[in-house]
Amino acid sequence: xxxxxxxIEQMAMQDYIIVKxxxxxxxxxxxxxxxxxxxxxxxxxxxxxxxxxxxxSLLNMMSEFAKLSGNDSDIPAYQDLAAKMKAAYxxxxxxxxxxQYGNNTVTANMLSLRLGLVPEGFKEKVFANIVKKTQxxxxxxxxxxxxxxQHLMRGLTEYGRVDMAWNIATNETxxxxxxxxxxxxxxxxxxxxxxxxxxxxNSANHVMLLGDLIIWYYEDLAGIKNAPESIAxxxxxxxxVFPEGLNSVSAAxxxxxxxxxxxxxxxxxxxxxxxxIPGNTSAIVRIPKEFQxxxxxxxxxxKVSDAATYTEIEIGSGNYHFSD
Length: 324
Known about the structure:
alpha+beta, two-stranded antiparallel sheet
């Protein structure tokens, strides 16, 4: 990994910008369903924005890997290069007056936001551009290709627009996953318009366009998420979201410690949530105050914090049932 990072730095970096790119945000939905690739420059994300933001993200990962593997002496160089790249990236691509990256595509703004490149004080403004672009220019539909779609659902949810993420997940008109299903797809196409563009180019089983949808299902809808300070689900942070129109979720994940389960239901004005935490693990659970859950103070449950919209509790291994 170190050799690859060094190779890219030596061969593709100019003034702290990674200039090499070939495919861009591959297979973003074109303006016409007969096209394979968009011809509209306003829809295309600058390749250097993609490659620079991704390389910046990898530098931060390498710092974490170095810490985990006992190579702490490598960390300062990664952090120094990352800081220089962030400064160069924002100087070249960020418009502080409009809070837009490049030509203001959802992908350019979302990658910058989720990969940690947006300067302090501008995050909400950058996100507002993502919302406006999605709503006004794309009618609440996906507008990203394979890179942007990796962060779209979680990004919308993290910044308070789970309703927009839910709408994208349930759309049945082009471009959407639901459109593929309505057209008879049983696997993910390579193109959002795989039925109308050149069939010879379109793979009918191309999981790359699924993006972060499945991660979003587990982490955000079910609430099965590894806690930030944890490794391999030793400790969980369970904080599901509840988009209007979704009344139940049931999910299970086979972690290295055993099976984690989360199943919640809204029915006839009541709410219930069943949780299974495997042995030798624990979980921080956010109980939404809107559901007025009873028995939070039962034995084995420790209250951690109290916020305006939720109560945080800590639980150990076992089976738990919460209801209003």
